Amino acid sequence: FNSSLEVNDRLLKICELLETNIPHYNWVGFYFRNGNKEELKLGPYVGEPTDHTIIPFGKGICGQVAVSNQNFVVPDVAAQDNYIACSITVKAEIVIPIFVNGKNIGQIDIDSNTPDPFTENDERFLEFVCTKVSEIL
Ligand code: SME
Predict the structure, then answer these.
(1) 111 in ligand 1 pocket by Cβ < 6 Å?
(2) How far away, in angstroms, is 19 Cα from ligand 1 center?
(3) What is the pLDDT of residue 118?
(4) Which domains does the chain have, with CATH numbers?
(5) Atom of ligand 1 nearest to the CA of 47
(6) How many CA atoms, within 13 angstroms, populate the side-chain half-sphere of residue 116?
(7) What is the pLDDT of residue 3?
(8) Residue-level pLDDT at 72
(9) Ligand 1 pocket, 93 CB below 6 A?
(10) 94 CA → ligand 1 middle, Å
(11) How much distance in Å is there from the Cα of 136 to the middle of ligand 1?
(12) What pLDDT, on a 0 to 100 scale, did the predictor assign at position 46?
């Protein structure tokens, strides 16, 4: 049994570590499926507060990943039509799903103020982070 307070503490630490140590990670947060609803709910994050604490499945980059079960790398957010803007400073975004027992239960979402900063190294590294996260939930 993992108390959600302990889990949220650890998730917040992960956000802080990533945001502090990786210069092109400027907003780092977790979204999780909200119960059995077809929507995501914002979990621990670091960076500017966002109004988008609930995101319906299919909406925005995050909502699309909830449906596709695939990584989504966005080199230029201005080129996306299904995108939810949180801050005008954001240039790029990466979202990696988190799987528990093969089910997509949430995701890590990272915004960058640098244009086109994400490589396959970010994808492999963040997949590793998401696997570790799935083990503490
Ligand atoms: N940009 C995201 C919304 C979440 S914010 O980046 C924190 C999206 O399009 O789903």
Answers:
(1) yes
(2) 16
(3) 98
(4) 4-113+123-134 (3.30.450.40)
(5) 7
(6) 1
(7) 73
(8) 99
(9) yes
(10) 9
(11) 24
(12) 98
CA of 24: how far to CAs of 3, 21, 27, 92, in Å?
32, 9, 9, 10
**Segments of the chain with pLDDT less than 50:** none
pLDDT of residue 1: 58
| Any atom of ligand 1 within 6 Å of the Cβ of 95 | no
pLDDT digits (tens, 9 = 90+) for 39-79: 999 999 999 999 999 999 999 999 999 999 999 999 999 99
For atom 2 of ligand 1, the residue with the nearest CA is 84
